[in-house]
Design a protein that fits this description.
It is built from nine helices and nine strands. By secondary structure, it is of the alpha/beta class. It folds into two domains: 36 residues, no CATH class; 221 residues, 2-enoyl-CoA Hydratase, Chain A, domain 1, CATH 3.90.226.10. The strands form two sheets. A seven-stranded mixed beta sheet has the order 3-4-5-6-7-8-9, sandwiched between helices. Strands 1-2 form a two-stranded antiparallel ribbon. Strand 6, helix 5 and strand 7 form a beta-alpha-beta unit. The longest helix is centred in the middle third of the chain and has 19 residues. It is globular and about 85 Å long. It starts with 23 loop residues before the first strand and ends with a helix. One of its GO terms (molecular function) is carboxyl- or carbamoyltransferase activity. Acetyl-CoA carboxylase is a heterohexamer composed of biotin carboxyl carrier protein (AccB), biotin carboxylase (AccC) and two subunits each of ACCase subunit alpha (AccA) and ACCase subunit beta (AccD).
């Protein structure tokens, strides 16, 4: 006769079926499971392969500017449904509630390593950072403020392109932002464009590629139309790495590829070199 009762799996109690959500994130590039706190501390760059996750405007600003120096502009600008697109304003409202943003770009004045700048940070979480009238207006106002105050302007782009809900009004923002940048250039003031994943469509075809200096995060997608559309239109096989930052640098569109953790220091050096256009 045994002294100890044989245990079975039922004696272990109720099985914990679910791990708490939000603790781990899987890297889409290498498949590594990353501890969320460690990933956030590393500016949302994979510690295994260096993949740069998309980040929000708040995280971007915090990683770039001198502490306490950012002062937001034009926060109250809100979209209107000028074309009567069904459900558009409901969609905008849903994204406002989801992200805490008013629109797909955040603009303002800031200091980067003690250098004064005007910043525009596009946020892909808001309707794919599509460029509507408010996005174009906020970026234009930031550029015009930089010109009036004789300061450099930096735009971080991440966008799916023009906002279809606003039709031609969206496309007009390409000309408006480009015109503001032309006046900024006439004043001999620096404009730095930083391309992040993804930068496509009308944003690529306007202000994103007009910088005096164009930087890009590693392996981000840069293009006008997507690779499938390009292939179907040209009936040609696309070269390896087509529309990546590395490909664009090899072909002269991008001047420098900068890792996220190096971005603040790189911009500080560039701003000190380029100056404020005295």
């Amino acid at each position: 006769m045994g002294f100890f009762k044989k245990r079975n799996v039922n004696d272990l109690g109720e099985k914990k079926r679910d791990m708490p959500e939000g603790l781990w994130t899987k890297c889409p590039s290498c498949g590594e499971s990353l501890f969320e706190q460690a990933l956030a501390k590393n500016l949302r760059v994979c510690t295994s392969c260096g993949y740069h996750f998309t980040i929000g405007s708040d995280e971007r600003i915090a990683s770039l500017v001198d502490e306490g120096s950012f002062v937001e502009m034009d926060k109250g600008l809100d979209s209107v449904n000028a074309l009567g697109f069904k459900g558009y304003l409901d969609k905008v409202k849903a994204y406002q509630n989801k992200t805490g943003l008013t629109e797909a770009v955040v603009t303002g004045r800031a200091m980067i390593e003690a250098q004064p700048v005007l910043l525009a940070i596009m946020d892909f979480r808001f309707l794919g950072a599509s460029m509507g009238s408010v996005v174009g207006e906020k970026i234009t106002r930031a550029i015009e403020a930089a010109t009036a105050e004789r300061k450099p302007v930096i735009v971080f782009s991440a966008s799916g392109g023009a906002r279809m809900h606003e039709g031609i009004l969206s496309l007009m923002q390409m000309a408006k932002t480009s015109g503001a940048l032309a006046r900024h250039a006439e004043a001999k003031l620096p404009y730095i464009s930083v391309l992040t994943h993804p930068t496509t469509g009308g944003v690529t075809a306007s202000f994103a590629t007009l910088g005096d200096l164009i930087l890009a995060e590693p392996k981000c997608m840069i293009g006008f139309a997507g690779p499938r559309v390009v292939k179907e239109t040209t009936h040609a096989d696309l070269p390896p790495g087509f529309q990546t930052a590395e490909f664009m640098m090899q072909h002269g569109l991008v001047d420098m590829i900068v890792e996220r953790k190096e971005m603040r220091g790189t911009l500080g050096k560039v701003l000190r070199y380029m100056g404020g256009g005295k």
